[in-house]
């Protein structure tokens, strides 16, 4: 097995289309992970990006209830796999090395096959050395289309939010730092949407607009606002339809998605600006400008058909307590790795540990030497989990293979909604409910990737 390293690639930089939508045909889609030199906005030299199909913010569009086949080809110099984030895939297709499949070695391939049960906005990425892979851009968007939604909107844009830790010459800063991993993460210095700095997009005047906003950044948590739009509404959370609610600075943690709908101004040349209003001075992310033939929509209802997901039985549900805490290294880990003849690097773990779940630290062991599961669940049974954040930092907690119902928060008026990733603020208690799905070991972790890779990860065993 190869260890992590700086990947250098020769050749001229390719001109990249961002984002590039690929309509999935009934035959297999080829997804090739490789190193592509590309000059990021404002830089004078190319950066060695890791990309699928040589494309920043690749977008795949497939259809609900239709079989999807993707052949993953690994042209990196380290092993990889593809995790289909938020999609309720069969366990063997979840893309976690050592847990659901063998890692795909350099030069090898792996075929993923599944039939998506739910429509929505999802994304895909590797699940080992994730902090570097995402830092170099290895992620794509998966949109599952539903015929029920046809004609509800006049136009849509996919907006992929990501920071880059790049220097002016194109080289990268460290993707994981002790100072960042032990706190709120290590932030990038170049903020982009679809790989561009403050792109300008067009929408027809008066159009019903749908924005599919995807946060693939490993660290940043923007508070979203749409300046210039009247009553922008969140109509889907993590791809799942919800009762529409006002955008109002919705916090979009790493790996979270929000579909936002609004009616564009009828005047040509009007600007709608997506902003991050977390700090005192809002940061503009993308501009939408009205242009072209005007539209007068007679159907101004901005909502999606209701999500069709397994409904948990709250009265019969089993209660689970989940505590997000600081952690310390397991003294048995180093001796175990030495006994097995592997390095901590090879088992996807850094040398330091800062975080834990229920005081259990993820040791990153191979699939035949797993730590105990956080919980043992029964397939088809309902569960209500209370997530308590006992740390001074936010944690976007992601559950593989399941979509859960966010019920309530102890600290804020949180609208009930479906999600696969929920942001838990410091000292907050959030209640979620779900029905245990297909048998298998399903990962549960923080999606601030430096937290994940320094301890805040475990798994749920469904039998």
List the helices and strands and how they pair.
Blueprint: E1 21-23, E2 29-38, E3 47-52, E4 58-63, E5 68-74, E6 83-85, E7 109-114, E8 120-125, H1 130-135, E9 140-145, E10 155-164, H2 178-181, E11 190-193, E12 200-203, E13 208-215, E14 223-227, E15 230-237, E16 240-246, E17 250-251, E18 257-263, E19 271-276, E20 283-290, E21 318-326, H3 331-340, E22 355-357, E23 375-377, E24 382-389, E25 395-399, E26 404-409, E27 417-419, E28 421-424, E29 429-435, E30 440-446, H4 449-452, E31 457-462
Parallel strand pairs: 1-4, 2-5, 4-9, 10-13, 12-20, 21-24, 23-31
Antiparallel strand pairs: 2-3, 5-7, 6-8, 8-9, 10-11, 13-18, 14-17, 14-19, 15-16, 15-18, 19-20, 21-22, 24-29, 25-28, 25-30, 26-27, 26-29, 30-31
Short description, anyone?
With 463 residues, the chain is mainly beta. Helix content is 5%, strand content 40%.
Could you characterize the architecture of this molecule?
The chain is mostly beta strands and 463 residues long. It has 4 helices and 31 strands. It has a 6-stranded mixed beta sheet, with no helix packed on it. Strand 19 (271-276) and strand 20 form a beta hairpin. The radius of gyration is 21 Å and the shape is globular. The model is unreliable at 1-25 and 364-368 (pLDDT under 50).
Keyword list:
463 residues, mainly beta, Immunoglobulin-like, 3 domains, 6-stranded mixed sheet, 40% strand, disordered N terminus
